[in-house]
């Protein structure tokens, strides 16, 4: 099955962006690791990153008709702001796991609110790039 991996704003800078918080792995490293693991299990990864809210909304809407079975979503800063992206996921009824590299609950208070967690199958946060891998294992177990 096809698994969509959606990355929100500033995640294109992974590896150089606040590495003490987000680690040294680049987005390409993370996507490559996920693609290899999914392929070994007989599934496919399609990764998409955008800094623009409407592009993420459009990508979620496109999942309606393109055979996407499941999504891993790191909404990044949109976690704490985007009703529009939340509504897109609710509209498309795409099952997804919310992923964060850092543990937002251990940071600034404004990061404790997520517009996604109550819609998500589950949430994985705080394990750096491994958060995505753990989320993928959970997704694979459900496909
Ligand atoms: C993040 C946490 C968010 O609070 C932050 O805005 C990000 C990344 C994470 O993966 O830890 O950009 O989603």
Tell me what you see in this structure.
This protein has 143 residues and is of the alpha/beta class. It has one domain (2-142): Rossmann fold, CATH 3.40.50. The protein contains five helices and five strands. The protein has helices at residues 19-22, 27-40, 53-62, 83-92, 130-142, and strands spanning 2-7, 44-49, 68-74, 96-100, 122-125. Strands 2-1-3-4-5 form a five-stranded parallel beta sheet, with helices on one face. Helix 3 (53-62) runs parallel beside helix 4. The termini are close together. The protein binds 1,3,4-trihydroxy-5-OXO-cyclohexanecarboxylic acid. The site of 1,3,4-trihydroxy-5-OXO-cyclohexanecarboxylic acid has 10 residues, from loops.
What name goes with the CATH superfamily? Dehydroquinase, class II
Instruction: Tell me the overall shape.
Output: globular
How many independent structural domains? 1
What is the percent of helical residues?
Answer: 25-40%
What CATH architecture would you give?
A: 3-Layer(aba) Sandwich
Order of helices and strands: EHHEHEHEEH
Poorly predicted runs: none
Structural class category: alpha/beta
CATH topology: Rossmann fold
Which sheet architecture does the biggest sheet show?
5 strands, parallel
- Average pLDDT rating: 98
Number of distinct helices = 5
Q: In angstroms, what separates the terminal alpha carbons? A: 7 Å
Spell out which ligands are present. Answer: 1,3,4-trihydroxy-5-OXO-cyclohexanecarboxylic acid
Radius of gyration: 14 Å
Tell me the number of strands.
5
CATH class: Alpha Beta
- Determine the strand fraction and express it as a percent band: 15-25%
Strand ordering within the main sheet: 2-1-3-4-5
Function: Catalyzes a trans-dehydration via an enolate intermediate.
Subunit structure: Homododecamer.
GO biological process, one term: chorismate biosynthetic process
Pathway: Metabolic intermediate biosynthesis; chorismate biosynthesis; chorismate from D-erythrose 4-phosphate and phosphoenolpyruvate: step 3/7
